[in-house]
Amino acid sequence: LYNGVDINKFFHINQTDLSSNHVFTVGCAANFWEIKDQITLIKAIHSMIKDGCAINLRLIGSGETKQRCVDYVSSNKLTNFIRFENECSHNKMNIFFNEIDLFVLPSYYGEGLPKILIEAAACGRPIITTDHPGCRDALIPNHSGLLVPKKDINSLVSAINILINDKDKCSKMGKVGRQFAEKNFSIDNVIEKHLNLYLNFYN
Fold this sequence. Notes:
The chain is α/β, with parallel strands linked by helices. Helix content is 42%, strand content 14%. It is built from 7 helices and 6 strands, in the order βαβαβαβαββααα. A 6-stranded parallel β-sheet has the order 3-2-1-4-5-6, sandwiched between helices. Helix 2 (66-75) links the parallel strand 2 (55-60) and strand 3. Helix 1 crosses helix 5 and helix 4 (115-122) crosses helix 6.
């Protein structure tokens, strides 16, 4: 059984403006470790920018690989498109999720279920993550988000483009993600599942 998420703390505030004037914004919040692989996401966004795509990336986190990522962004003159932000308190993450259009976690660490993905889904955001144990369990493939192979820049570009080019799909995936989080990962439901498991064990 997975840990639950407080769906009253993480919720959809209002639909991000996906009009023609809006710059599509991708978000990622994770420790900057090799296995979290933010550099693949950064390189994917770089590739899209070179192709003329209007897109921004917001990154939250700290860690051993952050400086390498910062140096890459700086050396490729991407600072107007890719922003590194200070870590914020957990209770402010709901605002972050609601300010982005898409949450991406390129991690390839078999870490169990990344809670950050469920929090993003609870806020009505579609997610893209790797087809890797734990990560893949946080979504309904092709319904609440998309799965990509680990460390695959081209596949990540293609997945992001699918959602940039179809705002209805982006919105629908976000709604399905919220429903998925409510049904499977709300704290109340998870507690009930744990209690039933214990009762069945002792009976």
